[in-house]
Q: What sequence folds into this?
């Protein structure tokens, strides 16, 4: 007889021998069931609140199917030059925005790093400033900058720069804090001042990581720069918005493919650059 | 013992002059190649910036001229219609609080439903996309390409198309967030499943378990806590994204904000901004607490 085969007999025997290990966890099960019920209940309430109905989904999907059918073959329909120029603008916005953000975020991240600024009040405040900036979506910032400097790519650059200032500032300060203290102590032992400690003991360790982060943000910003055009902050987004609004589906698919190719190309180049540095 | 350094100059021991010059020259030569490469990279960057600035129609002069607009704009959104500072009369500043809170609730619900829907889709697809749980190359390829596509297209672009297909309101926003989240989380989930320890899987298989048993008893216990933390992180991101869904007619607080900014209701702009920032802070804080609890639970078990 096989003592380990999962037959009812054997299971009963095991239950008898190990009652404590195999008793049902009534309370834990109840708690888990309660959480699952809450999660699903809120989900169901959301669907109800948003007028979700199988009929609406079906008709929406049917409309989507029609659009997709109208999208082939993708074609610029005579606007190729205009689209390419807008795409160039998008890449330019991403580049300038990321660089501006990096240049502004680096000195600020020094304030937010515990091992650089010893004063807890300063880095607490610096962190909160970064948190506030990060909690606002790029597109909201784009709208605000449009109100300040007017429509066009300039507002887009400023929006990306502001939004990344928050994200990069946080990342930079965390990178600085992760630096080993050995080098810093070495500089101090050789008679370096506080500024020397930071310049030669902390920054050289963080710099390669920071450059990698900036490149990575440039990649992801090419993606976010495609959408800030929707609110009028320059780039390919505006063309996409117009094409969708006027239901020019073949142009829509052409622009989407254009964006995907551009993003893939930039990912490739920046990946190579990051690998070359790492 | 004679002093090595000239007496009186310093008590620090120094090498003779001719030896330091020789060493310095060697050091300069060693650094020259690296410096040259750095200069070349920097020059390339400057050229790229120049081209980008030309394409984006930016020149430093307009930059400074327009930057002054920022302070005056911040000043204007900080004042009520009667010219007083906003904080002198909070009731007037937040006159639309009930309506804005309702819309913020809609935004939060949009991101909640969208995140859960997307995470559920990602959960199902990650087992199709991972080589550990799916041997069929063609299916795996299809699942991966689908995830890649829905991850690369921003959720707002999906929302633009879905608003046309499904009609105005939060529903297209929910679906747009769900699709993009499925792509973003699907990739992460797939990578987690790719990295699971295979020994428990072999154990379940050896005792006669089906593929579903393998996933349930060998894979899930290894990946669930990671899945949960990534989903919570994505929820934080989606709350921010859901605030702008209203810009394209997909529901929530965004629509109200767009109107306030386009029609120059200055104090409304600052009031809604404050509400958005506070909401995002609270959600991030709550989600962080939950994430820590998930991780601690895992360590305890």
A:
């Amino acid at each position: 007889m096989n003592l380990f085969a999962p037959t009812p007999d054997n299971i009963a025997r095991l239950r008898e021998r190990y009652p404590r290990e195999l008793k049902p966890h009534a309370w834990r099960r109840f708690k888990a069931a309660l959480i699952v019920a809450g999660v699903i209940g809120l989900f169901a309430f959301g669907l109800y609140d948003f007028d979700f109905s199988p009929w609406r989904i079906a008709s929406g999907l049917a409309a989507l199917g029609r659009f997709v059918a109208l999208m082939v073959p993708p074609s610029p329909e005579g606007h190729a030059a205009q689209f390419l120029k807008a795409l160039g603008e998008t890449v330019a916005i991403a580049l300038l925005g990321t660089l501006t953000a990096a240049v502004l975020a680096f000195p600020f991240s020094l304030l937010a790093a515990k091992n650089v600024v010893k004063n807890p009040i300063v880095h607490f405040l610096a962190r909160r400033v970064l948190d506030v900036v990060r909690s606002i979506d790029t597109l909201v910032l784009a709208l605000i900058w449009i109100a300040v400097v007017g429509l066009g790519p300039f507002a887009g650059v400023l929006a990306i720069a502001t939004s990344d200032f928050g994200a990069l500032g946080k990342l930079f300060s965390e990178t600085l804090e992760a630096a080993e203290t050995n080098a810093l102590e070495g500089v101090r032992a050789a008679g370096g001042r506080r500024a020397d400690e930071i310049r030669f003991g902390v920054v050289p360790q963080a710099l390669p990581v920071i450059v990698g982060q900036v490149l990575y943000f440039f990649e992801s910003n090419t993606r976010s720069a495609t959408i800030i055009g929707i609110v009028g902050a320059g780039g390919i987004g505006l063309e996409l918005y117009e094409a969708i609004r006027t239901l020019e589906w073949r142009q829509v698919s052409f622009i989407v493919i254009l964006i995907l190719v551009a993003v893939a190309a930039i990912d490739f180049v920046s990946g190579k650059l990051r690998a070359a540095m790492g | 013992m004679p002093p090595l350094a000239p007496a009186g100059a310093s008590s620090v021991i120094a090498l003779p002059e001719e030896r330091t010059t020789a060493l310095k020259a060697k050091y300069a030569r060693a650094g020259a190649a690296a410096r040259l490469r750095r200069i070349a990279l920097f020059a390339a960057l400057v050229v790229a910036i120049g081209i980008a600035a030309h394409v984006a129609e930016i020149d430093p002069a307009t930059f400074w001229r327009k930057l002054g607009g920022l302070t005056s704009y911040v000043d204007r959104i900080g004042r009520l219609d009667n010219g007083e500072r906003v904080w002198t009369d909070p009731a007037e500043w937040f006159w639309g609080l009930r309506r804005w809170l309702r819309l913020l609730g809609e935004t939060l619900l949009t991101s909640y439903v969208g995140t859960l829907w997307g995470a559920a889709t990602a959960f199902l697809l990650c087992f199709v996309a991972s080589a550990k749980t799916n041997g069929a190359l063609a299916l795996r390829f299809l699942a991966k390409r689908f995830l890649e596509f829905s991850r690369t297209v921003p959720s707002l672009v999906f929302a633009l198309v879905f608003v046309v297909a499904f009609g105005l309101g939060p529903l297209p926003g929910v679906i747009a967030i769900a699709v993009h989240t499925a792509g973003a989380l699907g990739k992460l989930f797939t990578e987690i499943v790719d990295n699971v320890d295979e020994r428990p899987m072999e154990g379940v298989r050896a005792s006669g378990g089906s593929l579903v048993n393998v996933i349930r008893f060998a894979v899930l216990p290894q990946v669930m806590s990671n899945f949960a933390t990534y989903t919570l992180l994505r929820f934080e991101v989606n709350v921010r994204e859901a605030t702008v869904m209203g810009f394209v007619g997909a529901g929530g607080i965004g629509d109200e904000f767009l109107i306030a900014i386009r029609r120059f209701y200055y104090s409304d702009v600052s009031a809604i901004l404050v509400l958005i920032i506070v909401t995002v802070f609270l959600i991030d804080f709550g989600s962080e607490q939950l994430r820590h609890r998930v991780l601690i639970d895992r360590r305890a078990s």
Summary: The two ends of chain A are 60 Å apart (CA to CA).
